[in-house]
């Protein structure tokens, strides 16, 4: 069974994240969308709120996509769930350099776990959770950037 972990803060999950997961379901039997505790980012939504959003977004794919919270190193979580792959999305060359460094370090820590990159689909590379949060804080419309299941929780925050 091919199992992948798609780690991130998902604060909030965006249409670009959803696109990566949906495209990856053709490559993997099971994908864990793993909401991690990122020590360098201040959260807007709580980890539990983010988990609830992701579960709603992928409710119809619950057999192949599972949302879960995790702490610590991604490679350790991969080992825990039996994943042989780390799934990452890339929007641009800057993302590539950052993600490449992480992938190379992960391969030192866990040589049997492979990182797989999916490039953003056309029309989605401009979307980032950071920008979405800024729009939310400033009372802007994020309906074109996040899945519909996220909008209710966005309304509660603004």
Order of strands, widest sheet: 3-2-1-4-5
| Element pattern in H and E | EHEHEHEHEHH
Q: Percent range for helical residues?
A: 40-55%
Task: List unreliable stretches of 5+ residues.
Answer: none
* Quaternary form: single chain
Shape: globular
State the end-to-end CA separation: 42 Å
The total of helices stands at 6
Proportion of β residues?
A: 15-25%
C-alpha Rg (nearest Å): 15 Å
Please give the largest β-sheet.
Answer: 5 strands, parallel
Output the structural class.
Answer: alpha/beta
Describe what this molecule looks like in 3D:
- It is a single chain.
- This protein is α/β, with parallel strands linked by helices.
- Helix content is 41%, strand content 20%.
- It has 6 helices and 5 strands.
- It has helices at 15-24, 47-57, 74-81, 93-109, 129-137, 148-157, and strands at 3-8, 30-36, 65-70, 85-90, 114-119.
- Strands 3-2-1-4-5 form a 5-stranded parallel sheet, sandwiched between helices.
- Helix 2 (47-57) packs antiparallel against helix 6.
- The protein is globular and about 45 Å long.
- It starts with a strand and ends with a helix.
């Amino acid at each position: 069974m091919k199992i992948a972990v798609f780690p991130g803060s998902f604060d909030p999950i965006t249409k670009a994240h959803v696109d990566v997961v949906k495209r990856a379901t053709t490559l993997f039997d099971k994908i864990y969308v793993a909401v991690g505790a990122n020590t360098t980012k201040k959260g807007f939504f709580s980890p539990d709120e983010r988990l609830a959003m992701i579960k709603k977004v992928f409710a119809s794919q619950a057999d192949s996509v599972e949302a879960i919270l995790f702490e610590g190193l991604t490679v350790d979580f991969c080992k825990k769930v039996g994943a042989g792959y780390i799934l990452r999305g890339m929007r641009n060359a800057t993302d590539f350099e950052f993600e490449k460094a992480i992938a190379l370090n992960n391969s030192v820590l866990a040589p049997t776990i492979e990182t797989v990159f999916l490039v953003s689909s056309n029309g989605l590379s401009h979307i980032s959770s950071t920008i979405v949060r800024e729009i939310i804080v400033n009372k802007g419309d994020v309906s074109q950037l996040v899945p519909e299941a996220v909008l209710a929780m966005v309304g509660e925050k603004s």
